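note to self — DONT lose this again. spent like an hour looking for the file last time. sequence + predicted structure for the chain T wanted, 497 res
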Amino acid sequence: MIVMARRFLIVTACLVGTVTFLIGLIVAGSMTPAPAHSATEPRRAVIRPGRTSGPGPAVASFADVAERLNPAVVNIDATTRGGGRERSRFDAPPGETTDPFGGPPERERQGPRRGAGTGFIIDPEGYILTNHHVVEDAERLTVRLADGRSLKAETVGTDPDTDIALIRVSASRPLPYAVLGNSDTLRVGDWVLAIGNPLAYEHTVTVGVVSFIGRKLFDGSLDRYIQTDAAINFGNSGGPLVNARGEVIGINAAISSRASNIGFAVPINQASDILPQLREAGRVSRGYIGVALRDVDPDLQRSLGLSSSNGALVQDVREGSPGARAGLRPYDLIVAVDGKPVAGNDELIRLVASRKPGTTATLHLVRDGRALSVPVKLAERAAIRDAEQSSDLSMRAGRPGSALGISVRDLDAEFAERFSLPKSLVGVVVSRVDPTGPAFDAEIERGHILLEINRQPVRSIDDYRRLTANLRSGEVLALYLFKPEIPRRELRTVRVD
């Protein structure tokens, strides 16, 4: 009886435990276990500013940069009484319709003119950098600070060649200022920020990337524009282009009228180099030797038999210039200045332009395979003026074309008189260019005068035929041309089809 009672108690306890467990599951809401999540199962990413959802650099936020730089950015009102004619250096360059933040290239001033642009303070004393075309011919300048104050400004100095101007305001207390960076460290793809007053919307901030470095637009010898896709519009002119560290690396200067996301800025290093002259003299003096140059590409090196592609090749020597007085000649390859090697055309121009007029620079060059050192006393480079473009180069019917894809005719007195050509100029005139031929790809145009082929003179049509009679496919020729609309001599390489 006792054994039976114990078994009954054990069975009863088991039944009670089982019932209790089942009731617990019912109360919990389900007898089905929750599904397990794999550690590798993808989840919806939540991206926050300054963070990343995976490997790689953090997403940059320009909020702090904009907050820090905005007080240093100013609005500039430039007023002119009117009368006379107005001309802007920022006419559309060949092949690129670029529209600056100014007006049309030339127009009558019918009355007072008021323009607006942007600038940025570069020190507590009130010095402000902006564009030359913002303050050009202005008779009254008014600067509106970020805190709402309006102050009269004076022009300290301008440089039309690089479109840079330095102005100044006087304030009762030190002003907030922007830190200048190093534009030489920029890389294509770097994030940049533009601050300005586009279309009178003050202190507008836009962000983009560096699209290209060293863009040539107006003056092929000095231009090194930074191209960016950060939105830039009318009124941004003179405003800062800023890197992710909050340093100014450019001065916004121009936009393309053919696209809404192509803007151009003057590198800040170009401004830093001339700031001392702008402060002290109000203008910039640059050294000048009076030669037209070009880089040496593989085709030119091959066609002229040059031993190196380093250096700048002389295409033309201006009559009466320091280079002419020093005896420089076309085809001279300048490889160094005062012992400092030069890689190409741009570097040589920068080295010469950075020297004071009146000083002597020693040019190291290669002429017909011989190394020479030529001292040149530098003159002062004149301000760049837009070359007058001839829109009508009507020619008489040309002769049959050649393997180069051009037709030529003799250079006659009528043509020479029309373009005031030098009397010593001897060559043939390009009368037709086949748009499917190799000369077209080399940018040879009607009206160009062909002087030499591979350093052989072309005095007549017979010379031209003789020098092009036995051309082989793939052969590269160096054509020495005179462009009467500039006027200047230039070298072009043409690869025979």
